[in-house]
Write a structure and sequence with these properties.
The protein contains 2 helices and 31 strands. The strands form 8 sheets. It has a 4-stranded antiparallel β-sheet with strand order 1-28-27-26, with no helix packed on it. The chain has a 4-stranded antiparallel β-sheet with strand order 2-3-4-5, with no helix packed on it. The longest helix is centred in the first third of the chain and has 20 residues. It has about 375 residues and is mainly beta. About 5% of the residues lie in helices and about 40% in strands.
């Protein structure tokens, strides 16, 4: 009878230890941690592993994992509202601001102005297979030639109207999304796709590609996927999509305006939502990237950046300093420590073998129930 009792206690205790050690590994960085502004509109990791963040009014920040270094108009930026970032094939950083483009070679900032009477806000920057840089403003598309931005001229009058996104795939095809549909540009020839082509909406907000499958996000009509069967909507058909990202496992990550971030498994047609209840700082997510160490980063509107380590179990055994690996009691302390009793000789022996789990050195979010 005593043996059965001990087995039941042991099973219960192992369950409770796992409950304590399981966590949602979101780490928040905002103004309190040194980010100059909590609205992050652009984010890249450069070839050296540094994270670059564009903010809406606080300039450009470089994050080395420990501290932020901020650059503004005083250091040479063309504007303090940064909406796009891109590292070219020569490892230069191109910064799209509310007042044109700034080039950073690792030492100095150089402005590359855009002549546009309507708007000089640069929302996207990309590079094609020939090494040519492309940039978009709300009403125009440009390419860099002889160190100057040249206007891309097209006979399609629907192209340069409320441009939202720019994407260049591995084949060198240029894709543009605006409020009039999806546009494909090959050798200056423009093809337009709309709801008449099978899209769920003409308001295109994000574009990406995995293998030969094109994925298109819309503003209020979810994500469209194009395969051998044509266009179809995956996930929530009324989602307001802000950004699309493909991770190393070829899973799709969807940034949304109100529902956080969604991880979508394209093979299984299944999804997982990450929102404030799961540990995100806010539900309005502007963009997502994956760093060299497989961590996911979320740039938000009002909640800074969030780093996601992945939901995981932490194991505490003799290797981590425990005196035993058979636990008969667990107690949660008021200071977030966990006390465990070990041994086989009863309660008195357990009292003599109490040990304490160290608290994390990192500031992790607590899931909301």
């Amino acid at each position: 009878m005593r043996t059965i009792k001990h087995i039941l206690i042991l099973l219960f205790t192992l369950h409770e230890v796992n409950n304590y050690s399981q966590h949602f590994s979101f780490q928040h960085y905002s103004v309190e941690e040194g980010l100059p502004q909590s609205q992050v509109c652009a984010m890249i990791q450069d070839s050296r592993g540094l994270l670059w963040l564009g903010t809406k009014g606080g300039g450009l920040s470089k994050f080395n994992g420990r501290e932020f270094t901020t650059y503004t108009k005083e250091e040479g930026l063309s504007g303090d509202q940064v909406y796009s970032l891109f590292e070219d094939n020569k490892h230069n950083i191109w910064i799209g601001t509310d007042n044109g483009v700034t080039h950073y070679n690792g030492i100095t900032f150089t402005e590359y102005p855009i002549s546009n009477e309507y708007s000089t806000l640069v929302s996207s920057i990309a590079q094609d297979n020939n090494g040519t840089l492309w940039a978009t403003t709300p009403n125009a598309i440009y390419y860099l030639k002889n160190q100057q931005w040249e206007l891309f001229v097209s006979n399609n009058t629907e192209l340069n109207d409320n441009i939202n996104c720019l994407f260049i795939d591995n084949d060198g095809v240029i894709w543009v999304g605006n409020d009039n549909g999806l546009f494909k540009i090959i050798d200056n020839h423009v093809t337009r796709y709309t709801t008449a082509s099978g899209l769920s909406s003409n308001k295109i907000s994000a574009i990406c590609k995995v293998d030969e499958i094109l994925l298109v996000g819309t503003s209020g009509r979810g994500v469209n996927i194009n395969d051998q069967n044509g266009w179809k909507v995956i996930g929530n058909p009324s989602e307001i999509v802000k950004h699309l990202f493909i991770d190393d496992n070829k899973d799709l990550w969807i940034s949304t305006q109100a529902n956080g971030a969604i991880k979508y498994n394209l093979k299984k047609n299944s999804s997982t939502t990450y929102n404030q209840k799961k540990g995100l700082s806010v539900n309005n997510v502007n963009l997502i990237l994956q760093d060299n160490w497989k961590n996911m980063w979320f740039g938000t509107s009002g909640g800074g950046i969030n780093k996601y380590h992945g939901q995981q179990f932490q194991h505490y055994t003799k290797k981590e300093g425990y005196l035993d690996e058979i636990f008969y009691s667990v107690l949660g302390g008021s200071d977030n420590t966990v006390w465990t009793g070990t041994g086989h000789l009863g309660f008195a022996e357990m009292q003599q073998r109490l040990c304490c789990l160290p608290q994390s050195k990192h500031r992790l979010s607590q899931p909301q129930m």
